[in-house]
Hints:
Chain A has helices spanning 16-20, 25-32, 68-77, 86-89, 103-108, 142-154, 165-171, 196-199, 216-225, 231-237; strands at 5-10, 37-41, 53-59, 78-84, 133-135. Chain A has 10 helices and 5 strands, in the order E-H-H-E-E-H-E-H-H-E-H-H-H-H-H. Chain B contains 15 helices and 13 strands.
Amino acid sequence: MAKPTLAFFDFASCEGCQIEFTNYGDAATLELLKHVDVVEFREAMTETTGGRIDIALVEGSFTREADRARLQDIRHRARVVIAYGACACTGGINALKNHQDDFAEYVYGEHATMPHLESGTARPISAAIKVDYEVPGCPISKDELLLVLSNLLHGTEHVTPPYPVCVECKRRETVCRYDEGDHCMGQVARAGCGAPCPADGIPCEACRGFVDDANLTALEKVLMERAGFSQKRAVGKSRMFTANLRS
Amino acid sequence: MLHDVNINVHHLTRVEGHGNIVVNVTDGTVEQCEWQVPEAPRFFEAMVRGRHYSEVARITSRICGICAVGHTLASVKATEAALGIEVTEQTKKLRSLLKHAENFDSHVLHVYVLVAPDLLGAPSVFPLIETHGEVVARALRLKRLAHEWGSAIGGRTTHPTTVIPGGFAKLPTVKELEALREKILAAVPDLEATLDTIAALAPKIPAFDRPTEYMAVSSASEYGLYDGEAVETVLADGDRARYAVDDYRTFTNEYMTAQSTAKFTKNRLDSYAAGALARFNVNYEMLRPEAKAAAERLGLEPVCTNPYMNTVAQVVEVVHSAYEGLRLLDELIESGIADEGIVQPTRFASGASAVEVPRGILFHEYEYDAEGMCVRANCIIPTNQNHGNIQRDFDALLPRLLAEGISEDDMRLRFEMLVRAYDPCISCSTHYVDVEFVR
């Protein structure tokens, strides 16, 4: 039986999630390549296929109407579409500009209206096409991506944890950022990453998005009452990687 | 000689980001010869406005997944300059060690995965698993080492966690540093084998000299990467100019063109080069002896004016970073790691920084208000600084290729290889490149 085919595509992003794919080392990478054929990966290969793909990994945000046709072509050709990384799953950091109206003038000045600088709202890939699986995070956890691919190859349903990052901090006995005099968004952030940031001494900024039915009013209240933020800073903070997930 | 040429490379492969190459020659007349950058623009300088100084580096890191360490370091350095923060010697050494990890990491990826297939006549690294399995396995081992090296200091390599204004949110232990030292020492045979491989492939690197201005961070005490008190440029005749980092706008001179969503730059000439070859040309004297020996073996001497040799300069820097990394580790293990706390701001004003990332010099500048919120930001990206130089190389290369009388396919490959040699990082620069030959 032919191996399933795997293809990588990128849109507005830093391409850091595909870089994570190069960090598995020789043993894991060469083992994975025994089970899949990589047929398209512009950043790493000149070969392309115009034909059917079993698994398409799509990175980056949908920011230009011109990219819609390219996304539709990927959807048309692929049996399974996986959006990976915060940019593809929620709009991620790119969505910060969605709450501004002068971003182009600020960066490009008098040239801001040149047609090739057109950039609309930064949206998730799912705003243009149907997405079958999401691997959230900025960057993705490379182990989680491997698990998603492994589950697909074995026909096992993949489940993203429904609980918040706080659970993972408790599990690994990380001292709460609030108890260190800092702030954090782990109480509403979707888990599955293993909570590396608080363990490294920095707050969780919800790069994987929010849990279902997150209480964002309470998040703002906690940021103000326990971390001493102004309301403006609390609102800004709650949008850091999640600007598309709240008003 | 070909009288009609039509090359149209839309979204060039094996580079970071999106770029096009368009070359159009009709009846011997050059109608178009362009390096175009159509990457989707992302507007980071606007997005950090209103953000607290503690989170700015974590946003600007997201400009680039390959140079994330460099963007983080440039960002915290500029923020520290703006906030009157003087970090400790231990912090500087750890950051320098982290910077070497990134240079090693990115260069290994570029040399083995993006450039080597051209020199071996393969379309990508994947067929090489069959034909050159040990070389691919070695590349993956070195890549993994760099990832573990960077993660030991920065928490992770794609968007590091531990690097914050004023110091480190989490410090490595001496035991972890000792383990890292052993891993780097164990990779020395792979480094030697890398030199053997590149020495064997070097004759396939095209000969093409076009003198330009070379720009790099300069330090009196080391080969400037993380640290450096000034920026220096050198011309092909050895003439040097030295500039203060704070004056970066006066020697980068950004301007817009219709062929690119990225800005272009120039200084003493109508374009300049940044990156490994520029650093080699500016800072050769500060290289480790092991790296100088590697340069000699690979036939690289300053001032080298062949842009295709940037790949060889990267290999020389891989050797330099390995041995400089070992030196820094020895010093840190000897002195022990002290929990020094985070140095706090003494003022809220503006400040700029320059850091070398794998593909060239990176400038960040910020201004903060009394609440520590960012009110103004500017980032000048290395690939932007190289776009103008790539275009000038195109202008000089096309007539020479036409005179050589080679086929259109071979011409296309030479243009593609030229762009790849610069190791452009187009997400960074907006960010991207395409080659189109229009008939």
